[in-house]
């Protein structure tokens, strides 16, 4: 199917009921796309063989830095100066970054400040303007990049300059060589799937039914418009990289939430809330709530209860292609609140519902090594996964293992009697 071709209503309906994840868009921004190779079968490529290629040289790069962190200022200045003077690229930065007092005092940056192109979050649309994204900071910078691009996302290269850094595999020490390798097309990719979240309001259901169906099939840009319009109501159509969280908010009562899968009622959640996460989000909030860790290339959606009032409510994993519907139970004592990657928090009233499915627009995260090595390195370094002291070997009993068991026991009994 052509990437620009719109889906028919029949195709839209089929996609949300398929047990397979939707085929991701393989073009990232104006310049980047997945390199096609012989490993592709029926246009489903082995995730381990996904590598970045540029079909025209990238010129515009967006640099995202961690806010309110003075330790990131020096790397930020070095990177921007090098990209402009050595690579002759057009560097985009958020206008709020240039207002940092410490950055204003930096004489080196003042020489290149006027060469940077600025944008304002919530006002300027960056669609098809950015070829390449570089993040300096922690995992929050990658989440912010996902928020800025609510459809096709340019390739993202994330440097670890934050606290945890589970999603930021690159070290900054030799950034020149690493960025050059990526710009030359020598890089593996991890396609981090995102979740398309749509709130259907009871009061606006009749007015928005048709547009919401189109939103779910991702054939329009209403999600982008609602996010970038600062005067609009909170967005009801958002792509999230980690998770969408439904909780009881300030109410002292249990959440009472009905969960549907492809139109079928699965269960009712009674507890503090519910986490619906992508594979990337399985190592975030869901991990703290007891979910399994899932590799980001696995096509799946995780459903994790938050402090359920039940001893048997375990987290589950469902196929990526299903459509989840979450609504407030009619007999619930209170409303619920929903947040998307920790942002855009808003209230779900009785009669409102939240629909979640896998988006066709992943975040193409550039690997430092490869998909497997990067993920297990992050598990070991950031989460200390399965770290414990090694059990000592039984050298002192090695002679016993080589002799007969009966003789050994007899000898031990005689020793004990003496």
Automatic annotation (TrEMBL):
Q: What is this protein called?
A: NAD(+) kinase
Q: Please give the family membership noted in the entry.
A: Belongs to the NAD kinase family.
EC number(s) stated in the UniProt entry for this protein:
2.7.1.23
Q: Which GO terms describe its molecular function?
A: NAD+ kinase activity
Keyword Magnesium listed? The answer is no
Q: Which InterPro entries does the entry mention?
A: ATP-NAD_kinase_N, ATP-NAD_kinase_PpnK-typ_C, NAD/diacylglycerol_kinase_sf, NADK
Identify the PANTHER family for this entry.
NAD KINASE
Q: Which PROSITE patterns match?
A: IQ
Q: Which one Pfam family would you cite for this protein?
A: NAD_kinase_C
Key words of the record: Kinase, NAD, NADP, Transferase
Q: Does the keyword Kinase apply?
A: yes
For the biological process aspect of GO, one term held by this record is: NADP+ biosynthetic process
Q: What class of enzyme is it?
A: transferase
């Amino acid at each position: 199917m052509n990437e620009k071709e719109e889906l028919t209503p029949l195709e839209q309906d089929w996609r949300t009921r398929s047990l397979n994840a939707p085929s991701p868009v393989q073009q990232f921004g104006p310049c980047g796309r997945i390199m096609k190779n012989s490993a592709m079968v029926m246009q489903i490529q082995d995730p381990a063989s996904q590598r970045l290629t540029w079909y025209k040289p990238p010129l515009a790069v967006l640099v995202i830095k961690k806010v309110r962190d003075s330790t990131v200022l020096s790397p930020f200045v070095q990177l921007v100066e090098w990209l402009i003077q050595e690579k002759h690229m057009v560097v985009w930065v958020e206008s709020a970054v240039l207002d940092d007092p410490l950055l204003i005092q930096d004489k080196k940056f003042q020489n290149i400040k006027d060469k940077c192109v600025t944008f304002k979050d919530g006002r300027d649309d960056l669609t098809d303007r950015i070829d390449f994204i570089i993040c300096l900071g922690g995992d929050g910078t990658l989440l912010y990049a996902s928020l800025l691009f609510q459809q096709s996302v340019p390739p993202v290269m994330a440097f670890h300059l934050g606290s945890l850094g589970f999603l930021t595999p690159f070290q900054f020490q030799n950034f020149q060589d690493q960025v050059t390798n990526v710009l030359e097309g020598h890089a593996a990719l991890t396609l981090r799937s995102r979740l398309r979240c749509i709130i259907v309001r009871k009061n606006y259901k009749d007015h928005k039914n048709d547009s919401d169906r189109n939103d779910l099939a991702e054939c329009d840009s209403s999600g982008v418009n609602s996010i970038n319009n600062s005067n609009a109501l909170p967005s009801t159509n958002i792509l999230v990289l980690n998770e969408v969280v439904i909780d009881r908010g300030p109410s002292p009562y249990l959440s009472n939430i009905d969960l549907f899968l492809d139109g079928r009622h699965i269960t009712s959640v009674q507890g503090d809330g519910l986490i619906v996460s992508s594979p990337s989000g399985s190592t975030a909030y869901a991990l703290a709530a007891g979910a399994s860790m899932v590799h980001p290339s696995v096509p799946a959606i995780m459903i994790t209860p938050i402090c359920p009032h039940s001893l048997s409510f375990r987290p589950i994993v469902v196929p990526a292609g299903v459509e989840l519907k979450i609504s407030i139970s009619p007999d619930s004592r209170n409303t619920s609140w929903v947040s998307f990657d920790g942002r855009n928090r808003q209230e779900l009233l009785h009669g409102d519902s939240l629909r979640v499915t896998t988006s066709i627009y992943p975040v193409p995260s550039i690997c430092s090594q490869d998909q497997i090595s990067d993920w297990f390195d992050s598990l070991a370094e950031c989460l200390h996964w399965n770290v414990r002291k090694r059990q000592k070997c039984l050298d002192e009993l090695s002679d016993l293992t080589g002799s007969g068991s009966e003789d050994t026991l007899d000898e031990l009994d005689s020793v004990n009697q003496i």
